[in-house]
């Protein structure tokens, strides 16, 4: 017997990697997971609010959106969000004049697109940055870590896009660079970063506001119990685990309460075949 919510969710949040797509390890190419196109098209047709929230911070939505549409995933830029989207709101709300960013040009482009003043390690402004933000940064070096740790020791706030060690790709689990950078800075400073991406409450509050719904009306769908499901549990949303990414059905059923999904489905295709949309 297929388990379904007592009432259809009024809105949906989808993870990207492992849920709607699989990237390659260099984030240069995408493969759409079967059923994802049809689900998004049907939600659009019905006028059901949805968005994608990825922990990937390498690209602005204006860059990643066309790439996704280029492989057939029908998602508009305004429905595509990253930890940079959440971080920008946090930085604005706190009135930070300058943020020291350990990230690629794409990370800085995204933040500056939201009106955030950014600087890089080695720049004069980095010496006075109000906050440090770590994100996708394959080229991070010891000078970068030294600059970030120095500002945190001097009292700058410490944020990160993601503290997740791995994410799903079509080549298998890939390394999350910001997690390693965070470990180095935290070990030196004794300060843990505040996460702006999943599973933070900041991210949950952001997506609920974007969808215009209460958390309990939203299905949060993803492949990682430590990310999407933990956020759903903590925020009071409907947690839905998929087995199309990093977590098997067996692993889902072994999760502790705080990471246990309300429902487990093979992939997003089940949202149509199993009657989730009513």
Overall average residue pLDDT = 94
Which value, in Å, is the CA radius of gyration? 18 Å
Number of strands: 15
Q: What is the overall number of helices? A: 10
Strand content: 15-25%
Strand order across the largest sheet: 5-4-1-13-14-15
CATH-scheme architecture of the largest domain = 3-Layer(aba) Sandwich
Regions with little confidence, pLDDT below 50 for 5+ residues:
none
| Oligomeric state of this protein | single chain
The ordered string of helix (H) and strand (E) elements is EEEHEHEHEHEEHEEEHEHEHEHEH
Reported for the largest beta sheet, the result is: 6 strands, parallel
End-to-end C-alpha gap: 17 Å
Helix/strand structural class: alpha/beta
Q: Name the CATH superfamily classification of the largest domain.
A: HAD superfamily/HAD-like
GO molecular function, one term: phosphatase activity
Protein name: HAD hydrolase-like protein
Keywords: Hydrolase
Organism: Croceibacterium salegens
Descriptive account of the structure:
The chain is an alpha/beta fold and 278 residues long. It has ten helices and 15 strands. It has two domains: 147 residues, 3-Layer(aba) Sandwich (Rossmann fold); 113 residues, HAD superfamily/HAD-like (Rossmann fold, 3-Layer(aba) Sandwich), CATH 3.40.50.1000. 35% of the residues lie in helices and 18% in strands. The strands form four sheets. A six-stranded parallel β-sheet has the order 5-4-1-13-14-15, sandwiched between helices. The protein has a five-stranded parallel β-sheet with strand order 7-6-8-9-12, sandwiched between helices. It has a two-stranded antiparallel sheet with strand order 2-3. Strand 4, helix 2 and strand 5 form a beta-alpha-beta unit. Helix 7 crosses helix 8. The radius of gyration is 18 Å and the shape is globular.
């Amino acid at each position: 017997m297929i388990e379904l919510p007592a009432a259809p969710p009024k809105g949906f949040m989808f993870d990207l990697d492992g849920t709607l797509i699989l990237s390659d390890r260099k984030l240069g190419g995408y493969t759409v997971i079967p059923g994802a196109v049809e689900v998004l098209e049907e939600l659009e047709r019905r006028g059901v609010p949805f968005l994608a929230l990825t922990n990937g911070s390498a690209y602005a939505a204006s860059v990643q959106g066309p790439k996704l549409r280029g492989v057939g995933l029908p998602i508009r830029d305004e429905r595509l969000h990253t930890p940079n989207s959440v971080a920008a709101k946090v930085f604005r709300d706190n009135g930070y004049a300058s943020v020291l960013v350990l990230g690629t040009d794409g990370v800085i482009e995204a933040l500056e697109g939201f009106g955030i003043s950014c600087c890089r390690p080695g720049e004069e402004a980095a010496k006075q940055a109000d906050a440090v933000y770590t994100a996708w940064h394959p080229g991070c070096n010891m000078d970068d870590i030294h600059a970030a740790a120095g500002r945190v020791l001097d009292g700058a706030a410490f944020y990160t896009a993601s503290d997740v060690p791995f994410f799903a790709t079509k080549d298998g689990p890939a390394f999350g660079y910001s997690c390693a950078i965070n470990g180095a800075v935290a070990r030196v400073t004794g300060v843990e970063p505040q996460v702006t991406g999943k599973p933070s409450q900041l991210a949950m509050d952001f997506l609920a506001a974007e969808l215009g719904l209460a958390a309990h009306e939203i299905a949060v769908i993803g492949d990682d119990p430590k990310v999407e499901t933990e956020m759903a549990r903590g925020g009071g949303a409907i947690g839905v685990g998929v087995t199309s990414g990093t977590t098997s059905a067996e692993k889902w059923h072994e999760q502790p309460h705080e990471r246990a999904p309300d429902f487990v489905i093979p992939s997003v295709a089940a949202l149509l075949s199993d009657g989730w949309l009513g």
